[in-house]
């Protein structure tokens, strides 16, 4: 497939096109800032010149530890435009996690906000040892030479953002190419140290273009996404998707349902992006009816029941489902805004153009028959270059024929559409039967008294594992026994939760920055409730 004729394949070319076609269209909007595509492109040129003056160029690793906003976008595009590599740093990381990211990626320059929300990031860097000798160097981070702080509280060992910009000399042209690495994306690392996924301009820009097209983004649309830009769902499916289609990206530093609804209404957003947790927080907000929304579509990674509710209750008639992972830039498959809503609500997705998907049996000996669940394998232009400095892990993930083992379970139907079942690590093995937590959650979400359900597996002496459901109730209420009895009439017996607890929320066990429940911690809490040896994690 000739991607070159389809869309711009570098981030800076995509922005230049948007600025040429729609210079006065707003590019990024927050509660405090607004910038048009013309202004954003000019800012990228200014930053690129400053990067070049600082000696930052091809192959250099540049850290970004900033909240969502125009500066993150401008820096990201400018870094790629000089052939350097952006390394997003999660602003919710601990000092040890930040140190690992900077050290493993060999970051030479770090751009950091003085604070994001309540986190003092400069103090966090001091914990690592940065600035101990009144310079940005640190014995534990031998590659780090420069720290540029964006904000008002500038330590003496750091460079202030205005000073960095003012050091720019002559304007320099863009040199980044489609096959340059644009991003080192660190995976969540729930079972081991996070690995750095290497993604190119080509893979991210093409993925963003096709995702935005299937979502129905058009020039002048207004797309709400609180997805953190330091995650690939933010950098690709929010930032670059908006740039590729000259769409206004409305964002916020952290998802909060009341503020999101206010922004969607006041900014007249036509689309939004979210996972099941985000969608349910919007759908179940007590003041939802007070807001006049103007939604036409949405990109939602959620169960069929939640997608149906987004269509019917939020008015996002063109809502689409998507499936992906960091190692695939990230989108693998997505439904299309023009398809019948029954198809879209079912979660059936078409692979991105030029991307192949196959389903392999558990023993790896054959391809699965239509509708038979198995391991999802992916091959195509969207597959990562590999893991940073990890050849063995790369070889384990991508076979010699280029097939990426996703670690996820899904099925292809007779029409070739992909149906996502669940993450392999989340599948519950009940007496020899595989149970996908998402399927059980979807049934529970049909109960009028359930606001949100999350299901994990817990050990069982007879059946090996059984489902354990945690449920947040709506105002209608229900008891634990009533919910289990209700579920028993709607699913096979082995899928019914053997244990169910009603909780007030999941913040106590920690939400990821993408508003996802951390299932590994929830499973540990469930085992503790049942008398397991794991320490209890309060909910």
Distance between the termini: 49 Å
Lateral strand order in the biggest sheet: 2-1-13-12-14-15-16-17-18
The helix fraction, in percent, is 25-40%
State the low-pLDDT regions, or none: 533-539
Record field, number of beta strands: 28
Summed up, the helix count is 16
The appropriate CATH architecture of the domain at 3-197 is 3-Layer(aba) Sandwich
Structural class: alpha/beta
Percent of residues in beta strands = 15-25%
CATH class of the domain at 3-197: Alpha Beta
Bulk shape: globular
- What CATH calls the topology of the domain at 3-197 is Rossmann fold
- Mean pLDDT, to the nearest integer, reads 92
Largest sheet: 9 strands, mixed
> Rg to the nearest angstrom?
23 Å
Notes on the protein architecture:
The chain has 539 residues and is α/β, with parallel strands linked by helices. It has 16 helices and 28 strands. The strands form seven sheets. It has a nine-stranded mixed sheet, with helices on both faces. The protein has a five-stranded parallel sheet with strand order 4-3-5-8-9. A four-stranded antiparallel sheet has the order 19-20-22-23. The termini are far apart.
Furnish the topology, listing elements before pairings.
Layout: H1 11-21, E1 26-29, E2 34-36, H2 37-53, E3 61-65, H3 70-81, E4 85-88, H4 95-104, E5 109-113, E6 115-116, E7 119-120, H5 121-128, E8 146-150, E9 159-160, H6 161-166, E10 181-186, E11 196-200, H7 201-215, E12 222-225, H8 232-244, E13 248-250, H9 257-266, E14 271-275, H10 276-283, E15 297-301, H11 304-313, E16 320-324, E17 331-334, H12 341-345, E18 350-351, E19 356-360, E20 374-379, E21 386-387, H13 391-397, E22 404-412, E23 418-423, E24 428-430, E25 433-435, H14 437-444, E26 450-460, E27 464-473, H15 480-488, E28 499-502, H16 519-529
Parallel strand pairs: 1-13, 3-4, 3-5, 5-8, 8-9, 12-13, 12-14, 14-15, 15-16, 27-28
Antiparallel strand pairs: 1-2, 6-7, 10-11, 11-21, 16-17, 17-18, 19-20, 20-22, 22-23, 24-25, 26-27
Helix pairs in contact: 1-2, 2-3, 4-5, 7-8, 10-11
């Amino acid at each position: 497939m000739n991607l070159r004729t389809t869309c711009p394949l570098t981030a800076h070319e995509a922005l230049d096109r948007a600025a040429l076609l729609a210079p006065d269209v707003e590019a990024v909007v927050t509660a405090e800032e607004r910038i048009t595509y013309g202004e954003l492109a000019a800012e990228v040129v200014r930053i690129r010149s400053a990067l070049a003056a600082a000696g930052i160029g091809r192959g250099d690793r540049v850290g970004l530890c900033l909240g969502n906003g125009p500066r993150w976008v401008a820096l990201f595009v400018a870094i790629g435009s000089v052939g350097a590599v952006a390394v997003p740093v999660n602003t919710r990381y601990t000092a040890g996690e930040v140190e690992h990211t900077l050290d493993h990626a060999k970051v030479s320059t770090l751009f950091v906000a003085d604070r994001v929300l309540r986190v003092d990031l400069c103090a966090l860097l001091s914990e690592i040892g940065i600035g101990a000798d009144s310079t940005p160097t640190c014995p534990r981070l031998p590659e780090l030479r420069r720290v540029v702080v964006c904000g008002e509280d500038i330590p003496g060992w750091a460079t202030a953002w205005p000073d960095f910009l003012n050091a720019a000399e002559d304007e320099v042209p863009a040199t980044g190419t489609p096959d340059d690495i644009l991003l080192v994306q660190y995976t969540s690392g729930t079972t081991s140290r996070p690995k750095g996924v290497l993604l190119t301009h080509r893979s991210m820009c093409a993925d963003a273009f096709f995702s935005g097209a299937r979502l129905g983004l058009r020039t002048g649309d207004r797309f709400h996404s609180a997805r953190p830009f330091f995650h690939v769902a933010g950098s690709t499916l929010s930032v670059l998707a908006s740039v590729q289609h000259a769409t206004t990206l409305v964002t916020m530093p952290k998802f909060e349902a009341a503020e999101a609804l206010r922004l969607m209404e006041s900014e007249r957003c036509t689309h939004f992006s979210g996972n099941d947790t985000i969608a349910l927080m919007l759908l179940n907000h007590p003041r939802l009816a007070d807001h006049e929304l103007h939604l036409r579509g949405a990109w939602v990674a959620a169960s069929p029941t939640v997608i149906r509710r987004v269509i019917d209750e939020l008015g996002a008639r063109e809502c689409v489902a998507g499936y992906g992972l960091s190692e695939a830039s990230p989108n693998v498959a997505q439904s299309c805004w023009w398809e019948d809503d029954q198809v879209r609500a079912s979660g059936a997705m078409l692979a991105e153009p030029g991307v192949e998907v196959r389903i392999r049996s558990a023993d790896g000996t054959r391809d699965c028959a239509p509708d038979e669940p198995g391991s999802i394998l992916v091959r195509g232009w969207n597959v990562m270059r590999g893991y940073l400095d990890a050849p063995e892990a790369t070889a384990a993930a991508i076979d010699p024929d280029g097939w990426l083992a996703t670690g996820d379970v899904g099925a292809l139907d007779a029409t070739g559409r992909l149906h996502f079942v669940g993450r392999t690590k989340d599948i519950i093995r009940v007496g020899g039967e595989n149970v996908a937590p998402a399927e059980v959650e979807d049934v529970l979400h049909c109960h009028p008294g359930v606001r949100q359900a999350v299901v994990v597996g817990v050990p069982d002496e007879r059946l090996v594992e059984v489902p354990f459901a945690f449920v947040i109730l709506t105002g209608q209420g229900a008891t634990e026994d009533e919910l289990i009895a209700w579920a028993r009439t709607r699913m096979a017996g082995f899928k019914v939760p053997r244990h169910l607890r009603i909780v007030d929320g999941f913040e106590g066990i920690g939400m990821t920055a993408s508003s996802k429940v951390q299932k590994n911690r929830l499973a540990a809490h469930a085992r503790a409730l049942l008398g397991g040896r794991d320490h209890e994690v309060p909910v």
